[in-house]
């Protein structure tokens, strides 16, 4: 028992008190001591040591380090990364609202291209400059509004039956109960690609080339391309993707179909508020983003459920919790760790003087576990009931594809949870792709 009392004399006495110590709860005595124990002291906090965000151990499990970074300083200047690391929820929300924080970052991408590949880069980076995620208001608003209606939840909901059929068909072929497989290769990667290509209007026969180009564009945008040869391949893939989609837009003008391109063209804004060149450029962004985020969300959600059996049991008992499980996965271990911004001008952030041209890493993975915003933030709880996480961003740059990602991820989780009672993780370490931005497993071995 740790709570002990003794009768003490009010007069000074240099003689050691050797009377037994009595526990007020149990009445038991402790052996007499020659001198009273020293009161407990709180050990000093360990000094904070900055670590490289792509250190293999940090990349594999970033949350312990990000928690310590946020606790040390939620707005931290990192000489190592040459950027402000913003990890507090309130501070990150401030950045997402602040006009002084700019999303325009094509030039830094251009600056990273090796000298030998610069001659290939001009057209490719012109395409990237038309991506709405790389534009600020009012350009961002003008570009985004042509897609707004088609990406609304009510419009995406039209594809629910198709998504559910495609999910069951793919799982039936690739995930036979009792068989060992890789959830990434079997379902998480191909299903969003299949669904988004169908929605965009890409013929099935063109799928392999279309998704190869998208993967190489991802290498460029996410920083995986390092060598000159890799840059050249990525830059050319972006140009090829742009050419392909420009031709598809011409076909849909002549012969509309039931797809995203035809629906946007029917809205009458292409060629008026937004040029056709801008429209095609944004379609390259949609094509790139349409599979990546959703694939990673599926994998991370399933991994979280399998690693927390009591939460998996709760969802199996009440399938209405599926959508809440997807939202909690976005908060707990979402597919995006951060976004990168630049300061358009000098401004104050939580008492820090941010200068024009400074880079800011908005670390949503840390903000989504900020105890000032989320009780017990390191606990995965499908009944948390809060969609106020920042996994899809916030404000003007809130992910336009959020409804699509929720629909597809929810369909996969629903079928796996209800129809695969034997689903289990296989032993072994998980390998995460080295990326500042994405939280993506290379494989997820399971027994179906």
TrEMBL record:
Biased region (Pro residues) positions are 33-46
Instruction: Mark out the compositionally biased spans (Low complexity).
Output: 1-18
Record keywords: Heme, Iron, Metal-binding, Monooxygenase, Oxidoreductase
Q: Which Gene3D superfamilies does the annotation name?
A: Cytochrome P450 (1.10.630.10)
Q: Which family does it belong to?
A: Belongs to the cytochrome P450 family.
**Name under which the protein is recorded:** Cytochrome P450
Which superkingdom is the protein from? Answer: Bacteria
Its taxonomic path starts at: Bacteria, Bacillati, Actinomycetota, Actinomycetes, Kitasatosporales
CDD domains for this protein: CYP164-like
Which PANTHER family does this UniProt record tie to the protein?
A: P450, PUTATIVE (EUROFUNG)-RELATED (PTHR46696), PULCHERRIMINIC ACID SYNTHASE (PTHR46696:SF3)
Pfam families under this entry? p450
Region ranges (Disordered)? 1-48
Q: Does the keyword 4Fe-4S apply?
A: no
Q: SUPFAM superfamilies of this UniProt entry? A: Cytochrome P450
């Amino acid at each position: 028992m740790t709570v002990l009392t003794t009768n003490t004399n009010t007069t000074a006495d240099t003689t050691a008190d050797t009377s037994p110590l009595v526990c007020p709860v149990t009445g038991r005595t402790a052996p007499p001591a020659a001198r009273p124990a020293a009161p407990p002291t709180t050990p000093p906090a360990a000094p904070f040591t900055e670590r490289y965000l792509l250190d293999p151990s940090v990349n594999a499990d970033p949350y312990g380090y990000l928690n310590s970074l946020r606790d040390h300083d939620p707005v931290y200047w990192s000489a190592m990364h040459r950027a402000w690391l913003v990890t507090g929820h309130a501070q990150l929300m401030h950045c997402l609202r602040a006009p002084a924080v700019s999303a325009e970052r094509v030039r830094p991408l251009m600056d990273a291209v090796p000298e030998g590949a610069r001659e290939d880069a001009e057209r490719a980076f012109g395409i990237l400059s038309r991506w709405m995620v790389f534009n600020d208001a009012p350009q961002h608003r003008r570009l985004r509004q042509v897609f707004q209606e088609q990406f609304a939840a009510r419009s995406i909901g039209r594809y629910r039956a198709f998504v559910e059929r495609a999910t069951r068909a793919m799982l039936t072929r690739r995930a036979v109960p009792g068989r060992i497989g890789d959830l990434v290769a079997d379902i998480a990667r191909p299903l969003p690609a299949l669904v988004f290509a169908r929605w965009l209007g890409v013929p099935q026969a063109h799928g392999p080339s279309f998704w190869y180009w998208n993967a190489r564009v991802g290498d460029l945008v996410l920083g995986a391309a390092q060598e000159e040869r890799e840059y050249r391949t990525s830059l050319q893939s972006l140009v090829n993707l742009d050419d392909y989609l420009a031709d598809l837009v011409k076909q849909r003008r002549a012969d509309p179909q039931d797809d995203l391109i035809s629906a946007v063209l029917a809205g009458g804004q292409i060629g008026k508020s937004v040029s056709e060149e801008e429209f095609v450029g944004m379609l390259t962004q949609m094509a790139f983003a349409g599979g990546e985020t959703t694939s990673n969300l599926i994998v991370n959600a399933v991994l979280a459920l399998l690693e927390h059996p009591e939460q998996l049991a709760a969802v199996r008992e009440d399938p209405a919790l599926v959508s809440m499980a997807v939202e909690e996965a976005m908060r707990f271990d979402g597919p995006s760790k951060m976004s990168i911004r630049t300061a358009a001008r000098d401004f104050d952030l939580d008492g820090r003087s941010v200068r024009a041209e400074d880079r800011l890493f908005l670390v949503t993975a840390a903000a989504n576990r900020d105890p000032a915003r989320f009780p017990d933030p390191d606990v995965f709880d499908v009944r948390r009931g809060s969609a106020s996480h920042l996994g899809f961003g916030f404000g003007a740059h809130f992910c336009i594809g959020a409804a699509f990602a929720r629909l597809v991820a929810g369909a996969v989780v629903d079928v796996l949870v209800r129809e695969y009672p034997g689903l289990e993780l296989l032993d072994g370490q998980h390998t995460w792709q080295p990326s500042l931005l994405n939280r993506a497993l290379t494989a997820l071995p399971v027994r179906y």
